[in-house]
Amino acid sequence: MANSVVVEKASAPPLPRIERLPEHVAVIMDGNGRWAERRGLSRNDGHRAGAENVRAVIERAAEHGVPMLTLFAFSTENWGRPTAEVDAIMRLGADFIDGHLDELDERGVRVLHIGDPSRLPESLRDRVAGAVRQTAANGRITVNIAFNYGGRADVVQAVRRLVADGAAPDEVTEEAIAGRLWTAGVPDPDLLIRTGAVRRISNFLLWQAAYSEYYFFDGMWPEFDAAEVDRALLDYSKRQRRFGRVPDGADAAT
Ligand code: FPP
What is the pLDDT of residue 8? Predict the structure, then answer.
């Protein structure tokens, strides 16, 4: 294929058994541009390598039995990138669906979209809708693709809908807002992974990640392979989650 980028990958190691798995893993796939620049390639080559990496990560998560994965593919702020890069990412999203939808479907992957579809090019919007339709009955793993997603935009559209629904002040509750977010019906992420060697949330799932555990990978997204998925899940399995409370048995007097 004329445009393909070869990413050398070690074959996946044997699957370790991990005891406490997250129900929902969300991923900020950062670092495609730097990965490419370090190799003398174009940023678009980096995004292509990043898109290729998505399949392996979905498959590894599914093999572990993680029921849900959310992937941040394009943010509401990414429209501010050069037009050629934005167009390339949109095309890659469409190519990814064209090239891999049947395989994902056969592997039991259910695809959902979170974000505002209205600004996406029609070619991508139609493919995303088609992927959601084709995979609706699958149950091995659900993959939410966040395309044109922003955490603040999500809260704003939810509150707008609540107002349009005529909510009185005392009806403005956490449940009423959560039920109108693009993620309505999706459990909050237990684990939020960010690749790319920076530690920030970049307007991803602001409401939903209130009590997520964070995991930062200092490599770039195309380097986040099956072994790294294993490492992130193992790290999560050792964490003690408190949700603002104290551990069971803790005594206030001691
Ligand atoms: C962040 O890297 C990555 C993006 C903004 C785009 C992610 C897109 C894909 C992985 C491809 C399409 C997605 C799917 C689901 C097929 P960056 O460009 O910010 O990297 P940098 O920080 O090194 O510049």
Answer: 61
What is the tens place of the pLDDT at every residue in 50-74?
999 999 999 999 999 999 999 999 9
Asked about 170 being catalytic, the answer comes back as no
Question: Which one of 5, 28, 30 would you pick to mutate in the ligand 1 pocket, going by the greatest count of ligand atoms within 8 A of its CB?
Answer: 30
For residue 167, the CA-to-ligand 1 centroid distance in Å is: 38
| Atom 18, ligand 1: residue with shortest CA distance | 33
Segment 191-214 mean pLDDT? 98
Residue 54, ligand 1, Cβ within 6 A: yes
- Whole-number CA gyration radius for the chain: 19
Select which of 3, 30, 116, 144 is catalytic: 30
Q: Is the pTM of this model over 0.70?
A: yes
Q: Which of 206, 175, 177 is nearest to 189 (CA)?
A: 206
Q: Can you give the residue ranges of every domain in the chain? A: 24-150+188-237
Rounded Cα distance, 84 and 72, in Å: 20
Q: Name the residue of 47, 59, 114, 217 whose CB sits within 8 Å of the most ligand 1 atoms, as the mutation to test its pocket.
A: 47
CATH topology (fold) of 24-150+188-237: Undecaprenyl pyrophosphate synthetase (3.40.1180)
- 98 is a catalytic site residue: no
1 — pLDDT class (breaks 50, 70, 90): very low
CB distance 20 to 9 below 8 Å = no
